[in-house]
Design brief:
Order of helices and strands: HHHHHHH
Shape: elongated
Number of strands: 0
Number of helices: 7
Largest sheet: none
Strand content: under 5%
Radius of gyration: 24 Å
């Protein structure tokens, strides 16, 4: 048990905790090690090691919200969920189309400057492949669900997520 305190004291709290997490992942240190505190003053707190590492926030519950999560917070019932998702989808489609047009324009300008006439064609193929991948991924995910389980809502959420990622990729290159 003192091994944890020694590692943390010797390496410092941040590096010590990282080493302990690595050791725990390799099953070299027991989970009881994390119950120990880095400093004697902290010994009376009940804060978990995960919370200490995250600055007081529990990393297990600080996940990114999906479009379904956002709409469930706004919707009074399941009937109100679909219009919310459709609104988010329209907003994201507009952002994606704007990013796509900007990327195509930027690629045309780069072609003019560089003299390489294959850049726009390559971008177009990349965009088409990304759109095809997103369609197939969302279809596959919803195909694994049974009817009356929110399949349509999940499809809309998946489409929003995929469009958001594609928009990010396109704007990242500008």
């Amino acid at each position: 048990m003192n091994c944890c305190r020694t590692i943390i004291t010797f390496c410092g709290p941040f590096v010590g905790y990282l080493l302990l997490i690595l050791a725990l992942a390799c099953s070299a240190v027991s989970a009881s090690c994390f119950a120990e505190s880095a400093h004697p003053k902290e010994a009376t707190t009940t804060q978990s090691s995960t919370e200490r590492l995250a600055g007081g926030k529990d990393l297990r519950t600080s996940a990114v919200m999906t479009p379904l999560d956002v709409c469930w917070q706004q919707a009074a019932n399941r009937i109100a969920l679909k219009p919310c998702l459709e609104t988010l989808l329209k907003q994201q489609q507009l952002a994606y189309e704007t990013a796509k047009l900007s990327a195509i324009k930027a690629m045309s300008e780069l072609e003019t400057i560089s003299g390489d006439q294959h850049l726009s064609k390559q971008l177009q193929l990349t965009i088409e492949a990304g759109e095809q991948y997103a369609r197939q991924l969302c279809r596959w995910q919803t195909a694994t669900m049974r009817g009356a389980t929110g399949q349509g809502d999940h499809l809309l959420s998946c489409q929003i997520i995929q469009l958001t990622q594609q928009t990010h990729h396109l704007t990242e290159m500008l």
